[in-house]
């Protein structure tokens, strides 16, 4: 893991849960970190803790991934702050809860835009920098993107889309000799506040610890 010392890393959805824990692990390894989420106040605390833990540098840029212009500009700003990019960790999702699908098209559209389309926008914006550094894209996905389950139709659709898109691009990179690796992380139930709230009273299985999960993602 010393390999990550001095590496320049973006983590999205980093104000809580797995994203926050990944930022802390990267900080301990001495990486340069730029974190993003919607909450400026929470991100300030995350950055402050990253610096305490030994990050080579730590910055935050707050904004919503519903806004594709923000997504694109965020990558450019992060690249400027760190002088390039070695790793893009895509981890954010829109607010989601477990419900029967009631025909809410707006929810489907928002899930697809935030959980899928913004990932594409971010990766396209980051690719020139990642090509220069022979870097990597890490996509945090879910079992719900490999296997259908009830009560999460819009979320599941967006995660299936991630798998289809990034698995396809990974093959293209191999054929065209683009030296940027793409890793899809397929997670089960993790004990983040968001996940625990969503499954409360619906699913009764043991969740895995978010700290360990975050470390495994970074280790690849």
Automatic annotation (TrEMBL):
Nucleotide-binding keyword on record: no
GO cellular component: endoplasmic reticulum membrane
Membrane topology of the entry: Single-pass type II membrane protein
Keywords on record: Endoplasmic reticulum, Membrane, Oxidoreductase, Transmembrane, Transmembrane helix
Record flagged with keyword Lipoprotein: no
EC code: 1.1.1.146, 1.1.1.201
Catalytic activity of the protein: taurochenodeoxycholate + NADP(+) = 7-oxotaurolithocholate + NADPH + H(+); 7-oxocholesterol + NADPH + H(+) = 7beta-hydroxycholesterol + NADP(+); 3beta-hydroxy-5-androstene-7,17-dione + NADPH + H(+) = 3beta,7beta-dihydroxyandrost-5-en-17-one + NADP(+); glycochenodeoxycholate + NADP(+) = 7-oxoglycolithocholate + NADPH + H(+)
Principal cellular location given in the protein's record: endoplasmic reticulum
An example Gene Ontology biological process: steroid catabolic process
InterPro entries to which the protein is assigned, alphabetical: 11-beta-HSD (IPR051253), NAD(P)-bd_dom_sf (IPR036291), Sc_DH/Rdtase_CS (IPR020904), SDR_fam (IPR002347)
Alphabetized Pfam families for the sequence: adh_short
GO MF terms, alphabetically ordered: 11-beta-hydroxysteroid dehydrogenase (NADP+) activity; 7-beta-hydroxysteroid dehydrogenase (NADP+) activity; steroid binding
PROSITE patterns: ADH_SHORT
Annotated localization: Endoplasmic reticulum membrane
Family: Belongs to the short-chain dehydrogenases/reductases (SDR) family.
Subunit structure: Homodimer.
Name assigned to this protein: 11-beta-hydroxysteroid dehydrogenase 1
Species for this entry: Neovison vison (American mink)
